[in-house]
Amino acid sequence: MADKKKEGKKIIAQNKxxxxxxxxxxxxxxxxxxxxxxxxxxxxxxxxxxxxxCSFKNGEMLAVGVHISPYEQGNRFNHEPLRDKxxxxxKKEIMKLQGLVQQKGFTLIPLSLYFSGSYVKMEVGLCRGxxxxxxxxxxxxxxxxxxxxxxxxxxxxxx
Length: 159
Hints:
By secondary structure, the chain is an alpha+beta fold. The protein has helices at residues 16-21, 36-44, 91-104, 132-158, and strands at residues 9-14, 22-32, 47-48, 53-57, 60-64, 67-68, 85-88, 107-116, 119-129.
């Protein structure tokens, strides 16, 4: 019998700006507490992770600034688009991350939102900020790798 929980990830939204603005040191998977109309909007892909971050309040981890558009057929039961979403992780992990963020100058940034089976999960990155020269370096590296790939592809067809 096939186990339905072992299905692959289906990515809903990604935060590409986070990869540009931060060095991602570690990644964590967290569940996310959502209302019914939020799930329906997420299934349509109406999510924006840009300019979002994670904060801590009363021993809980919250995703702040995650925009989930209101569901069109939601009428009075619709959700607030920018409300703080509670992230679901083990208490030990939350306490560890809270300590790192407070002491070492890290920040927690939502990197992607995806379906894992029938559940919505969020990938959270433990990040350090990039300086302007770091951004230029990573842009130059990316461009150099594109150039190398392009030249290698051209050489394959010639020989």
